[in-house]
Design goal:
It is a single chain. With 467 residues, this protein is an alpha/beta fold. The chain folds into two domains: 7-72; 92-353, Type I PLP-dependent aspartate aminotransferase-like (Major domain) (Aspartate Aminotransferase, domain 2), CATH 3.40.640. 42% of the residues lie in helices and 12% in strands. It is built from 14 helices and eleven strands. A seven-stranded mixed sheet has the order 1-7-6-5-4-2-3, with helices on both faces. A four-stranded antiparallel sheet has the order 8-9-11-10. Helix 6 packs across helix 8 and helix 12 (346-380) crosses helix 14 (449-466). It is globular, with a radius of gyration of 24 Å. Bound molecules: pyridoxal-5'-phosphate. Pyridoxal-5'-phosphate binds at residues 81-82, 141-143, 185, 187, 234, 236, 261, 263-264, 290, 302.
């Protein structure tokens, strides 16, 4: 017997009410959480209950004790890391993902999911200016998107070197050289670690964090054998872009596989105005990005693309007698991401793309960048505040300058702490090129000019108090 549908009603109604209450509270609430994790442990913990609790009561319990401990990440004044909010269509579609509960592995078994993801995948290739016919995988996030693209690269360059990776593994294999920009994201190194490729060779980057083509040329000339070059669209600090056309050409001349980490920066391609920033990126071999950052779908959702579907499938594909695969070599999702079983992430991506349309995606990206410049203009015009990076995208690095009797690193860290405590808005601190900075990232679809102006006022108030 299947579960009686009414058994879900009360719990779902409560969840819907709590979700709406939360969303209604977001515009006005302080951005930081009001309780810490220990308080949540105390409220929800205790001995593992012997018996059942009513499903609706469980939902109430969670909402009551967790909600005060939530960071208002969907707020238009949340500028931490690169964390977008959630578009209404994407959120609602994500609810359906759970209700429909499709294990998205096989085309035959979950045609609804597969069909939707095929449509979304095609639209993504268009939006991001990637070659038609590239393979698409829906993964958990940018880290696993990097991992998957680099895994495809590892497989390909070893195969080209005559090594049977599937049969013989990495032990005794020719060394795979991996060249990366000095200022790449840490998850590239993490992915390489997971792949058994060890620490990459860092190639010099310029003052904005872009890899230097002449240095890449020398690094390529210094290596022999299977090689992967990992480039970056959107430096996590400055938002800068590696010079793709030149670097990809160089790498390909040396027979290297080129992977691009574009967790958020690849979305520049969706805007006709910003597209020049990624000129030439489409000639790479694999690309990683996130939908849960700038496309504003709920966590978790990363995307990996591979120009050569065979290479992608060679690295990820799996076959087993008990699974049902199409006889015509049709696309099975489990051949394109590391998981065998996974949720139907593509529904939220489809919903976001459909709800926004091509123009809406471009607007979302351009608006975020315009608002980032608004931050930079207003803060940069203030005495004692300096903007450290060229604001080419949605990232702004701000430093607060102390008088001769105090250290600017210390002042900057204090301002960041005060802003985080103040609650009007939230941004993280960082260290860039050896200097402490406030890192502002604009990637929420709902952020507007008023949010920026209010946040700037709060930052300047905290800076005055800290001085
Ligand atoms: C440039 C870059 N690459 C990779 C990642 C990792 O993405 P995720 O956190 O979705 O795994 C991030 C996340 O902040 C990023 O900014």
């Amino acid at each position: 017997m299947s579960a009686r549908p009414d058994l879900y009603d009360k719990a779902l109604e409560r969840a819907s009410t709590h979700a709406r209450d939360w969303l209604a509270s977001v515009p006005g609430r302080a951005v930081p959480p009001q309780l810490d994790a220990d308080a949540v442990v105390a409220a929800l913990g205790g001995p593992f209950p012997e018996g059942p609790t009513d499903p609706a009561d469980v939902v109430d319990l969670l909402a009551r004790h967790v909600e005060p401990a939530l960071m208002a990440m969907p707020s238009g004044r949340f500028f931490g890391w690169v964390i977008g909010g959630t578009l209404p269509a994407a959120l609602a579609a994500d609810w359906l993902v759970s209700a429909w509960d499709q294990n998205t592995g096989m085309r035959f078994a979950t045609p609804g999911t597969t069909g939707t993801e095929e449509v979304a995948g095609g639209w993504l290739l268009e939006a991001l200016g990637l070659p038609g016919g590239s393979d698409v995988g829906f993964v958990t996030g940018g880290t696993m998107a990097n991992w998957t693209g680099l895994a495809a690269g590892r497989q390909q360059v070893l195969t080209q070197a005559g090594w049977d990776l599937d049969g013989d593994g990495l032990t005794g294999a020719p060394k795979v050289h991996v060249l990366v920009g000095e200022d790449r994201h840490a998850t590239v190194d993490l992915a390489l670690r997971y792949l058994g490729l060890g620490r990459p060779t860092a190639v010099a980057a310029d003052e904005q964090g872009r890899i230097v083509p002449a240095a890449l040329r020398s690094a390529l000339e210094a290596v022999d054998g299977p090689t992967i070059v990992a480039l970056q669209a959107g430096n996590l600090h400055s938002g800068s872009f590696d010079p793709f056309a030149e670097c990809i050409e160089l790498a390909h001349q040396h027979g290297a596989w080129v992977h691009v980490d574009g967790a958020f920066g690849l979305w520049a391609a969706a805007s006709p105005r910003l597209r020049p920033l990624v000129a030439g990126v489409g000639r790479a071999d694999s690309w990683a990005t996130d939908a849960h950052k700038w496309l504003n779908v709920p966590y978790d959702c990363g995307l990996v693309f591979c120009a050569d579907p065979q290479a992608h499938r060679a690295a990820m594909g799996a076959r087993a007698g008990y699974l049902v695969h199409g006889s015509g070599g049709e696309r099975d999702a489990l051949d394109h991401n590391p998981e065998h079983s996974r949720r139907a992430r593509g529904f939220a991506v489809y919903a976001a793309l459909r709800a926004l349309g091509r123009g809406g995606v471009a607007d979302l990206v351009e608006r975020s960048c315009t608002l980032a410049r608004r931050f930079a203009t207003q803060l940069g015009a203030t005495l004692g505040v300096t903007v450290l990076n060229d604001v080419v995208l949605n990232q702004v690095l701000v430093r607060f300058l102390a008088g001769s009797d105090r250290d600017s690193d210390d002042l900057t860290r204090t301002v960041v702490e005060r802003v985080q405590h103040d609650g009007t808005c939230w941004m993280s601190g960082t260290v860039w090129q050896g200097r402490a900075a406030m890192r502002i990232s604009v990637s929420n679809w709902s952020t507007d000019e008023a949010d920026v102006d209010r946040s700037v006022a709060a930052i300047l108030r905290c800076a005055r108090e800290a001085a």
